[in-house]
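Issue: copy button drops trailing tokens. Both records pasted manually instead:
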Amino acid sequence: MNTNTNLVLACLDGSSLTEAVCDYAAWIAQRVDAPLKLLHIIDHHHETAAHLDLSGNIGLDSQQHLLDELTAAEQQLSKLRLQQGKQLLQAAKDRVIQNGIAEPISNQRHGSLVESLIELEDSLRLVVIGLRGKVHENQADKLGAKLESIIRSLHKPVLVVNGAFKAPQRIMIAYDGSKAADKAVDMVATSPLYKGLVCHLVCVSKDGTTMEPLLQTAADKLNNAGGFEVITQLLPGKPEQALCNYQAQHAIDLTVMGAFSHTRIHDLVLGSFTAKMLLNTKKPLLLLR
């Protein structure tokens, strides 16, 4: 197994979802026999803003003294963040080893999480990240500050974790006949990740006549692949509402769906179907572009 490619990447920031991110990433890495990488980013962007404006109209000597103090404080804060990150990565490493990962890779980087993921993208199989980071972890009506950019920027699957780990037994594909939905069906049909699970193929549509043959074709592809039970369902109603209700009623552990339609790529995520699913679902969401 090449440890430099096909990586399952867990993005860690020390939020309350960090342990769940580790657990889901370890579960996936084991089932698909892929190396697991733990990533922590030290982002200094918010620390550098407006420091030069704090001196006001004080004299030059006082201004220089203040700037020297600010520089020393920044350096100390940077050291503390570095040490905190190392401790976070070590704790995560210990956790995934306990979960059966023999040789996890850990990586601490400075800079932007989005830019780092774009740089690493060619080596990735899948990214696991929490729905909210430390900044928004107590705000149930908000998505993580970087989540939208990550989903837009990457062309690899992104598993968004929103609660404690539970080994999936039942998955749901949110199917709408789009290319992204067909990609989700293909991925589930061919990946070892889903073997042995129950797969619910669910479509919400007002036009059952049009969708039924598409849904049947997708179901046939899954059945022909073998290795899991397939349950097909066509539902009325608003998609996000119907899908979230179905999740709860059928104890779905993980939902697979496309992120954005082609026409929404340049729109804001907030207010879109993807965002509504992220905010309302109670189980992890695996998004495909």
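Record 2 (pasted manually too):
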Amino acid sequence: MLEEIKRSLAECGLSQKEASVYLAMLELGEASVQDIAEKAGVNRSTTYLMIESLQRRGLVSQFEDGAKTQLVAENPERLIASVVDELAGVEAKKQKLHEALPHLLAMFRSGDKPIVRYFEGEESLGMVRQEIGQTREPIWEVYAVDEDLIAGANTKGEERIQITKRLTGRAMMAIKPGCIPPYFDRRGFEVREIGYDTCPFSGDIVITGEKLFVFTSAPRGLGVIVESKEIVDIVRALYDAAWKTAKLWNPPEGWGK
């Protein structure tokens, strides 16, 4: 039960040692630092620091008893007030950021230099895929259908299908011999195939608006987003040249079932 209470206090923002000291004080009532430290199982110097932190939260008060300084825990209901105060502080910071955001974005996008963002790890790349899925502009995508893509589709298949339902544009695939493209919603897409034997690669490139997304098939997952009209125009021209030489792709019998 005591550990469960400590976890609840941790969720309110107290550290493990702060929680131990506060619980010890609740049990002891009026007590000295030495008694609190022994009850909490925390060394004396650390107990002083924890008490100072709890005092700042309004959870501890002290008084003089003759020549001794005694400490006492405040009513636990003060914890709720402490959380409310913290939430109010967070909301105030959030409001300040909202007010400053237009100026920050103006600085972020100032100048002619490209904006490059780098991502690593499946969670980060998932956020990038969501960013692509939310675009309202047509996308041009070229990707390799190989073992890495199929393995990823097996774990993210439904998510991929839901994203493609919201998109339109072009899809160009380089299909490795022996591999079958994972199912995706083809409605709204023109789909073509380029020869894997003549241009083998592994990964994915997406063009939409003035953004270029590049994903590798590295085990840990790597991705880059480039925001630059000039760079995207170059890649778009190369994509269009490859598109004109690609052949129409027809799914194999039973594909997607």
